[in-house]
Write a structure and sequence with these properties.
mainly beta; six-stranded mixed beta sheet; four-stranded antiparallel beta sheet; 52% strand; globular
């Protein structure tokens, strides 16, 4: 059974940094692309970063501030978030990319506020 467990969120001031982690199990992690997605209140879930075949891609809104990485030996994917802005406030999820699994994890809340 696919399991995705996100962690590392919290409350941070504008300009601050956070590092999110995701532990994946139940599927052949190393052969799939992975992504970080987020959902802000009242908005649809959106893809913010992906890593697939050694390539990384970012949404324009986070480019230059966020960095996605993965460790296939540990079945983990991480998201380093720097220069955080209030508009980055959302619940962040990891999932397969480009086709997410139907069962999402619980996500981790990121709140950027002074």
């Amino acid at each position: 059974q696919v399991q995705l467990v996100e962690s590392g969120g919290g409350l941070v001031q504008p300009g601050g940094s956070l590092r999110l982690s995701c532990a994946a199990s139940g599927f052949s992690f190393s052969i799939y692309g992975m992504g970080w997605y987020r959902q802000a209140p009242g908005k649809q879930r959106e893809l913010v970063a992906s890593i697939s075949g050694g390539r990384t891609n970012y949404a324009d809104s986070v480019k230059g501030r966020f960095t996605i990485s993965r460790d296939n030996a540990k079945n983990t994917v991480s998201l380093q978030m720097n220069s955080l802005k209030p508009e980055d406030t959302a619940v962040y999820y990891c999932n397969r990319f480009p086709i997410p699994y139907k069962n999402w994890g619980q996500g981790t809340q990121v709140t950027v506020s002074s």
